[in-house]
Amino acid sequence: MADFSVRSDSVNVEQIMEQIRARIREKRGSDYTEQQIRELASVKLEKFLDPRGVRSDLLEAYRQTQAAHTPPPPPNYVFGEDTLFETHRGPLRAMRKLLAPILKLFWNPNPLIAAMHIQSQLNTINAQRETERRGLDELHFEVLHNLVLETTRMSIELKNLKMKVESLTGRLEFNERRARALESVVVYRPGQDDRIESPAPAHTPFVPAPQAASSPQLAPSLAPQSGGAPSPGAGEGPGQRSRRRRRRRGRRGGGSAAAIMGGAPQQPGAEQPGAPQTMSEMGSHESDGGSEDSFDQADHAGPDDSSGSDSGEQ
Amino acid sequence: MKVAVVVQRYGQAINGGAELHARYIAEHLARHTTVEVLTTCAADYVSWKNELAAGVETINGVAVRRFRVSHERDPLEFGRRSVRVFDERHSVADELAWLDAEGPTSPALTKHIARHAADFDFFIFFSYRYYHAYHGVRAAGGRAILVPTAERDSAIGLSIFTPMFKSVRALMYNSPEERAMIQALAGNEHVPSVVVGIGSDVPANPQPARFRQKFNIRGPFAVYVGRVDENKGCKELFEFFEAYLKESSGSLSLVLIGNSILQVPSHPRIRHLGFLDDSDKFDAIAASELLIMPSYFESLSMVALEAWALGRPVLANGKCDVLKGQSIRSNAGLYYGDCVEFVETLRAIEQNRWLSGSLGRNGRQFYRDNYDWPVIERKYLDMLQRLSAETAAARTMEPLPGWFARRRADERAGSEVVAALPAGPCVRIEPDAPSSYAPPPPAARPVAASPQMPARSDGSRTAPSQPSQQDRSSRGRHDNRRFQGRHGRGRPRGGPQSGRGPR
Fold first, then answer.
1. ipTM of the prediction
2. Which of A134, B198, B390, B405 is deepest in the core (most CB within 10 A)?
3. Does domain B208-370 have CATH number 3.40.50.2000?
C-alpha cells in the first residue's frame, strides 16, 4: 500500500477507501460481487467453463431432481406378539385371547410373528438410511454447488490472470527493447581523458570505428555498417577504454611503464622524455598503443586506480 | 438546579455501556449541579436479580437511591414475547407485556419519580428500551430528558416508544446516525436535541512499554477491546484476521482484551489476554498499531473514542453505520465491508506510516473537539440551561389506547419497521435543533481541541492560521461546525499525547 497518495495534513478517509477498493478491483481483475458470481455460476457457465466438462444447467437440473423427488416416508408397521389377535372390539378380543391356546394346537404362529417383527425393524432401518441418504444428497448438492461456484471463480481468475500475463509479457518485451535501445545510445559525459582521446580519429581517418566511438549518438547506426573486422577500440566508449587501461595497470602492479621497462624511476612532476605534450601527441601515442600507462598515472592517481580491484574482471 | 439520573443499573463494578455512560455523566454533572441517581437494586442485566441493598448510598460523591425490582426476568417468557413483537404482527398490549418481561420491572422506582417529580428540575433517563425509561418518562412529565442509547435493533421499531421520543423535553443523542434513525422513526425533529456522546478518563501518560513487558508482547499488533462474542462480530474478525495472516506479508498480531464467550482460534499471532483493568487497557491501546472494532451494532463505541484519544487509528466494521460515520467524519479510521477489504485496510494502516499517523492525529483532534469532558459537560449544561429558560410548554406523552385498541393486533413487527428505516452513515451532519450553540463565523474554524484553550461562550473554539472556508467547503461535508476541525489539518501536537507521527 505504499502507493497511496496520502498527505498527513489532508487525509480523507473516503478517498482512501476508494483507493483501496480500486486496488482490490485491480487485483481481482474485475469486480464481481458474490451475487454476480452466483448468477454467473448458475446461468452463464458455458461462457467460462468448458461445456464438455460441466453442464451449465447442472445446478438447475439437480435442483429440479431434488424438488421432484420428495418421497413420502416409507410405510411401516409395528408387529408384536399380539398383533394377530388384536381388534378394536372388546368381546372379540377377549374371545380370541381365550381361544388362542386352542388355535395354537393347529398351527404355530410364532415364526410368522417373528418374521413380521424383523421385517418391521428392517423397514425402520431402511427409513433411517433413506433419511441419511437424503441428508447426504443435500451435502453433495452443497458440495457440487460450491465446486461449481469455485470453478467459475477460478476460471474467471484464470482468464484475468492470462490477460495480465499477456499484458505483462508485452510490457516486458517492450521494456527489453527499450533498454537495449537506451544502452546503445547511452550518452557519457566526456571526462578529461575522453576529451584527450577525442582527437584520435583524426590520425586514423580510415578506421571508422573510433569515429563511431567518439560520436556516440551515431554509434548504433554506424557500427553495424562498418562490416570489416573491428579494430581494438571499435564499438567501445571512451569510458570503457580507460577502464581497460586501469585493469592493465592493475595487472602490471601499478608501476609506470618506464619502471617496468627498466628505465630510470620517474620523479613526480618531472616530464618524461618523449611524453606527449599536446593533445595531438597524446592522441598519436595512444593510437600507437605506447604511453597509455604514463597518461593514466598522471591523470588517475586515485585510490581506485592503485588498488587494482578490477583485476578480477578479466 | 437539581437533576436526577435514572438508569437501570448503577455502580462502580457495573461496566455496561449505558450504565457506565450514566455514571460518568452523573459524576461529571455533579461538579456543576446537584445530582441524584435513581436506579434499581439489580446488578445483573440478564436476571435483574435484587443484589444490592435498597435505599440511599453515595458513590464517588453522588447520592444513589435504589429501588427493588418486583420480579426477575424469565428468559423463556422474554424470548417468547420477543419473537412475538419483533417478528409478528402484534398489539400494543403485547409490547407492554414484552417491556414488563424485559425488566427491570420496578414500580417502586416509577412511583418515586411520580411522587417526587416536583423536587427535581430534570430527570435524565438512560436507555429508552427498559421499563424504567418508558414508565419513568410518563411519571416525570415535562421534566424528562432522554439519552436513548439506541442501536439499530428490532426494539426501536416497537410502537410504544414512538410517543416517548416525541414527548420528552430533550434528547441527548450519542451519534448523528442515532439521531437520524430516531427522527426518521418518530418524526420528533421539533424536540430539542443535541449529539453529545460521552468522554472517557484517558490517562495522560499511558505506558506502552509497561504493557509489552507485563504481557510479553513483542512486535506490532492490532488490539480488540470488548467482550469476545459472536454478537460483537468477533467470529468474523477471527475469520478475516486469519485470512490476513494467510494472504498478507504483514507482521501484525491480534491482541484480544475482554472476557470471552467465544472460542478464540489457536494461533501464535492471536493472543487473548482476558479482562484487564483500565490502566492496562489504555497501555495496550497506546502500544497497539490500531484498534479493530468488528461490531455490527453500536450506539457509540467508547473504546473507539479512547483509541482516538490516544492517537490510534481505528479499523471499524463498515456495516455498522455509527462506526462508519464516525470514521468518515473524523477522518481517523478506515472501515471494511468484507474480508478482502479488511485485509487491504489493515495492510494499509500497517504499512503506510503516514496514513496511520495522520489517522491517529485526526482521531485525537476529533476526540478533543467532540468528546473531551469539558465539551460534553458544556453540552449537557447548555441544554439544561436552555430548557430551564424555556417557558415549559410541557409536552405530555399521549395516553395509551383504550382496552380494546390496545389488544388489536395491528402493529407491524419490530424488525419490519427497522428494516424500513433509512440506513447508512451520516456524512453530512445536520445542525442540531435551534440551540444556544451559534456556529462560529466563517473565518474562524473551531479546532481548539486543547483543554487548556478557553472555550468561547458560544461553544466554539478558535485557533490561528485556519484554512480558508472555501477550502473546507470544497470538501462538501461537515455542515455542523462542531464536527469540523479535526481533519488532520492541524499540525502534530507536542506533549505526551502526541501521535507518533510519520515513521
1. 0.71
2. B198
3. yes
In terms of DSSP bridges, do strands B55-59 and B62-67 run parallel, antiparallel, or are they unpaired? Answer: antiparallel
Residue A217 to residues A213, A227, A237, Cα–Cα distance (Å): 9, 19, 11
User: Using CA atoms, how far apart are residues B441 and B446, in angstroms rounded to an integer?
Assistant: 10
* Unique residue bearing C-alpha cell 467482550: B227
CB B228 within 8 A of CB B272: yes
| Topology (CATH level 3) of domain B2-199+374-420 | Rossmann fold (3.40.50)
Whether pTM > 0.90 for this model: the answer is: no
Q: Do B332 and A13 touch (CB under 8 A)?
A: yes
Percent with pLDDT over 90 in chain B = 59
Every domain of chain B with CATH number 3.40.50.2000 lies at 2-199+374-420, 208-370
What value, to the nearest 5°, has the Cα angle with vertex B200 and ends B194 and B205? 145
Residue A13: its chain B contacts at CB < 8 A?
A: 327-328, 330-335, 359
B143-193 pLDDT, tens digit each? 999 999 998 889 999 999 999 999 899 999 998 889 999 999 999 988 999
- Ordered DSSP codes for B407-474: T---BPPHHHHHHHS--S---SPPPPSS-S-PPPPTT-------TTSPPPTTS----SSPPPHHHHHT
CA atoms of B264 and B243, how far apart (whole Å): 15
Q: What is the DSSP letter of B230?
A: G
* Cα gap A178→A175, rounded to integer Å: 5
> How many beta-carbon contacts under 8 Å exist across A and B?
70
Which residue of B345, B347, B361 is the best one to mutate when testing the A interface, meaning the one whose CB has the most A CBs within 10 A?
A: B345
CA pair distance B273, A93, nearest whole angstrom: 73
Q: Rounded to whole angstroms, how far apart are CA atoms A201 and A284?
A: 10
Measuring CA to CA, which residue among A239, A257, A261 is closest to residue A298?
Answer: A257
* A22 has a chain B CB within 8 A of its CB: no
